[in-house]
Give the backbone structure.
Amino acid sequence: MHDFNYVNGKLYCEEVRIEKIAMEIGTPFYLYSYQTIFNHYNAFKKALKEIDPLICYAYKANSNSAICKIFARAGGGAEVVSGGELRQALEVGVSPEKIVFSGNGKTEKEIGFALKSNILMFDVDSEMELRLLNKVSHSLKKRAKVVLRVNPDLNPQTHPYLATGLKESKFGFDFNQALDGYKLARDLENIKVAGIHMHIGSQITSLKPFVEGLDKVISLIGELKKIGIATEYINVGGGLGIVYLDEEPPCLDNYARVVISKLSGLNIKGIFEPGRVLMGNAGILVSKVLYRKETAKKTFIVVDSGMNDFVRPAFYQAKHRIEPVVKKEEKEEVVDIVGPICESADFFARDKKFPRVETGELLSIFGAGAYGFSMASNYNFRCRPAEVLVSGENYFVIRQRETYEDLIKNEKMPDILET
Ligand SMILES: *Cc1c(COP(=O)(O)O)cnc(C)c1O
């Protein structure tokens, strides 16, 4: 279902030859397929059709406005974790009653903005947040709809940085304290309890953690009923894993079957917050080979994108499929593919069997559509890459490559250094 394919050894995105884009706009750049994004969203929706899900795309996976607008146009909602993401969701036309606000550090200002925007609900992370939300709601004469994020205390068997439902995780109400949180929420005048939220981690490649999490959450719903709290929504979060290299994540239908079997009969609306599964394989990062360098121990391929552009390999030890954009019949060698950043963690692959490539050739890093640009930085005072969207035989630059002026535009020289 991914629209990145080789035709006669040349990589295309939908009907556009990627070499052509590189020639016209330079490298590096992120490249997304409209059709893939659209198909992924619709497949997700279709798999869960039976329970009429509310799908709130997780903005942090890729928050380019054009990408967000594709989901908005397709009827999707938004899961936002900051005032910036909330504003963006509203600007691209997501209706407020499809926006959920998560995160463990919402500021008073962000809460006020969200209340005034009449979003659907807050995924509340702590007792203190609940009290602040109540206070701000009171002053705005509103009643905030909330679900409490509970931490089901389970191991989603993913990278430690991607696990969010372990007992020691910073996220959510401790499972054993959740009932107290709900009692508080019930008694706060400007809070309306609407249900329960879980998000146990990301890049989860087995169904077991979802089953365990849902079972725990559903058992809590029974407890809530006993203290007079009705559950209108279960927010299942995101987290479904994708294939980067040789992972075997559950297919959508199996994921849906499990969720549907747990939710059906409860008469509770399901909310989903997929990010990676919609965007991950809808984008690639295209870079150019700058140098080859052979040392006593290694052969390095130095490319023009680095960990500042795409941090997943350095940050999560993530392994991505990498291929030349134009395939030639070259012998394979063992190489490290590295960026230009002054850090030893700046690599995209290590000891990888790879066809011999020379200066000027293009490489594609696959699976870069989610947590790619959204995690990019200006480290080493580098301009972040351009972003391009392909649809059919056309491509559109949806974010210009940064310039030196962009890098310095918010800097200020103090008077003492002006003379
Ligand atoms: C990051 C996040 C998501 C999206 O996770 P994916 O693994 O990209 O699907 C959903 N919900 C919450 C609360 C998140 O923090």
About this structure: The two ends are 61 Å apart (CA to CA). Residues 58, 60-61, 79, 102, 199, 202, 237-239, 273-277, 370 surround pyridoxal-5'-phosphate (CB under 6 Å). The CA atoms of residues 252 and 324 lie 30 Å apart.
